[in-house]
Amino acid sequence: MTKTAQPAKGNGDSGNIVLSIDAMGGDKGPAMVMSGLHKALQRNARLRFLVHGDSAVLEPLAAKHRLLRERCEIRHAADVVTMDSKPSHVMRHGKGTSMWAAVDAVRDGEARACVSCGNTGALMALSMIRLRKLPGVNRPAIACLWPSRNPAGFNVMLDVGADIRAEAEDLVQYALMGAFYAQIALELEKPRIGLLNVGTEEHKGRAELKVAHDMLLEAAQSGLFEYVGYVEGGDIPSARTDVIVTDGFTGNIALKTGEGTARLVSDLLKQAFRHSILSRLASLLALTSLLRLRRRIDPRRVNGGVFLGLNGTVVKSHGSSDATGIEAAVRLAHELARADLPGQLAHRVASVEEARQGAAQVGQLYGNQK
Amino acid sequence: MTKTAQPAKGNGDSGNIVLSIDAMGGDKGPAMVMSGLHKALQRNARLRFLVHGDSAVLEPLAAKHRLLRERCEIRHAADVVTMDSKPSHVMRHGKGTSMWAAVDAVRDGEARACVSCGNTGALMALSMIRLRKLPGVNRPAIACLWPSRNPAGFNVMLDVGADIRAEAEDLVQYALMGAFYAQIALELEKPRIGLLNVGTEEHKGRAELKVAHDMLLEAAQSGLFEYVGYVEGGDIPSARTDVIVTDGFTGNIALKTGEGTARLVSDLLKQAFRHSILSRLASLLALTSLLRLRRRIDPRRVNGGVFLGLNGTVVKSHGSSDATGIEAAVRLAHELARADLPGQLAHRVASVEEARQGAAQVGQLYGNQK
After folding, report:
1. Domains and CATH numbers, chain B
2. How would you summarize the oligomeric state and partners of this protein (chains A, B) (predicted)?
């Protein structure tokens, strides 16, 4: 059923990197996914894919291009997780789905990272039960990139919806994980971390934020990141910080509010340009400028929420991704795989925790003098 | 010191409405405030103002225009609440400030509503201690208007920052207060209420949201509003709902995220248009279109957060308001004063609470059968 030249395993001694792809479940279907993979293969000679889904659909798509034929291994999966499948149902009955198989390939060491544009809730739930949490991590998080005024053009925000709660300790771990993610995705040496709150004064906000604030001041001693203190909603797209740390409830609402607002402004802009003959002419002249703006805030260029804190790397591509979006998600997964995301995160979480316990012991020895 | 033709009291038997104005503390100074008041007086013959602030500054400004001379009474206040004053400090030591005097004029029945463009936190704190909460209201809220796809062009959101917490009961009161506010500000007969959450499915979100969801389904029986269920961040600027109900922490972050995102998009748009000669030409041609867009989402047109749930009406105008913004805030205060906001809110809160207790008693009588 498969005709792969080199079904490279996991890390591959050849220097190749194998990614596991869930080709089903996106809004635009498997053809768009295969087209994105083809683009990615053209750019990177070291990439190999395990592609999960309906082989009757995928084989003919792969047959069209030599690169796909040579560097993809199609793995048949009869079932699909749909966009409206309930995560709890998928966890119990999802074993035959392409999503399950795609995650399991990472679990089994066959691939270094997984990419899916399917149902986010189901993907998170499956990743949790199949990959399990990293040692020392209490709550995994979903990190996203957000258009900003920073030179890289984007900030990282997490958690944007893995969990609706976060204790102070979780927020500190988010900071550590977000800092590492920003180092890779935004190529920053020492990312600046901000803690999302309703004001920047020390006395403001919820109790767990004050505790996290103090813990972050201390954890910043590790040198792994710079801590800039509290930031507000208006700072999310700003140049004040590189990483915005918050709980998954607030983060999800902020993310969707931002997306909704940007969509409204852009729709109103289109309306404004359609209003008269003169404005239509102007929009023609402004076309390249408007395209430039669109490119600047194009979600396809930064496609992919990343699940952090698991024994394996999973990238969630937008459900409505086209080939460019899929390619961006694949590129991100590749970068994270090369950097050994899970291993590095586990190491950092452990070292900061050790430092904290060490400090606590020293505090006890000296009677917690301040 | 004052030269008012008719220092009309509170409601005034003349049919005039008196508003109390804090003329100090905004970013653009008292001259801008007086200019806004002048605009408002030109439009409405029934308006009278009590203007609080430094009379040495205000008297000469009022002297310039006949309408201001005739229909403003200047009340001298030596001190000013600055933008960086701490609310707790203002509560203890703010007695000589124009903000304090402006709120007290509502408390004492001299004016029907108060407008200030000063420090939000201090204004909220002062309003709380001087006006006190309405009977039956546990947590007052700040409501704002948000550009949306609805015919009115705006939605109402609350709480956007009066309190960082909200229990289920508070969220139900926010719904009642927001519905009434939307009736007045957006001229809607039966506003639709949405409860902000991270998903629209029944099982999602925090525990207090599930309780509030059930309570709102019941409270909607009152006929005072329609309840559309959970809404997400992306629905805040949508036509799915007229009022978005949330706690003050989430609401404040969503509000500032939306503002920040809109500002980023508009700045990037400007950059795009400045990029080349052709795009500069296009921007000239598109000028009216762009101005139309700007007008559509202009915060000045909907200027004013409103404090709901107090024994008196207080409108917070943007700190950076110009004359148009001040005028909009004054017009809003005038509408709310005419509608007797506090009286109506107290009545509604009491009637829904009665219905709830009645239902609970009936439930007890029948052994809480379901």
Report:
1. 1-132+310-339 (3.40.718.10), 135-247+302-308+341-370 (3.40.718.10)
2. Homodimer. Probably interacts with PlsY.
